[in-house]
Amino acid sequence: MANTLVLVRHGQSEWNLKNLFTGWKDVDLTDAGVAEAHEAGRKLKARGLVFDVAFTSKLVRARRTLDIILEELGQAGLETLEDEALNERDYGDLTGLDKDDARARWGEEQVHIWRRSFDVQPPGGESLEDTAARALPYYKARILPQVLAGRTVLVAAHGNSLRALVMELEQMAPDEIIKVNIATGIPIIYTLDGHGRVTSKVDLETAR
User: Fold this and answer.
1) Under a CB-based contact definition with an 8 Å cutoff, are residues 89 and 132 in contact?
2) What pTM does this model have?
3) What is the pLDDT of residues 23-34, one digit of tens each?
4) Do 50 and 129 touch, CB atoms closer than 8 A?
5) Maximum Cα–Cα distance for the chain, whole Å?
6) pLDDT at 208 over 60
7) CA–CA separation, 24 and 91 (whole Å)
8) CA distances from 96 to 22, 174, 182, 194 (A)
9) pLDDT tens, 82-110?
10) What gap in Å lies between CA 207 and CA 103, rounded to an integer?
11) % helix, strand, coil for the chain, step of 5
């Protein structure tokens, strides 16, 4: 499985369950999130994947998801690089607010714009464009060279930082990536050619 890149969003977090804007708030996984991480590891093991290096964010929900996956794979202690470039989008003043309460306060349309537009920032926070501006340089400088060297690489991160990577990998336009939702705990397996272009993709949510 050379030149392989696997992306996985952390399992369900405590604030996912409570329907709160999370962003950089460092909350842990729920029991369901732990179970999702174990299942992700089992699915990757069933496909015979063995990783050479892993990357994750500085937030515990991603780091713990990665640890559980590696435990399932029998690869606990794998070389792992952590960086806040892979952190979730910062939701600024929305952080900690119930999403329904936010809609009641600012209106359905405004909250939808903050959540799903590419370049509109919530008050005090980051847009998806801002998230991509820190995640993509890190991907190109640190992650992609490992894949191009023939290694099998695992990235455990967040919905928006991973959407930035997917946008690059699949050469999506801003109006396309805003429609993409990355499910918690579901690995996506990419194979890349020598130029970093995708030659195959398997989403384990739909794969049989």
Assistant:
1) no
2) 0.95
3) 999 999 999 999
4) no
5) 50
6) no
7) 8
8) 6, 27, 21, 42
9) 999 999 999 999 999 999 999 999 999 99
10) 35
11) 45, 15, 40
Q: Helices (DSSP H) in the chain: which residue ranges? A: 14-17, 31-46, 60-73, 99-106, 108-116, 128-138, 144-148, 159-169, 174-177
Say which residues have a Cβ less than 8 Å from residue 18's Cβ, sequence separation at least 6. 98
Query: 88, 126, 158, 168: which is the annotated catalytic residue?
Result: 88
For residue range 166-205, list pLDDT tens digits in order: 999 999 999 999 999 999 999 999 999 999 999 999 998 8
Instruction: Decide if 88 is catalytic.
Output: yes
State the catalytic residue, choosing from 10, 72, 126, 168.
10
Verify whether residue 10 is a known catalytic residue. yes
**Token reading at 61:** 């929900």
CA atoms within 13 Å, Cβ hemisphere of 144:
18
CATH top-level class for 4-35+52-203? Answer: alpha beta
Strand ranges across the sheet with 188-192 = 80-82, 53-56, 152-157, 4-9, 188-192, 198-203
| Cβ 187 vs Cβ 45: under 8 Å | no
Question: Which amino acid, 118?
Answer: F
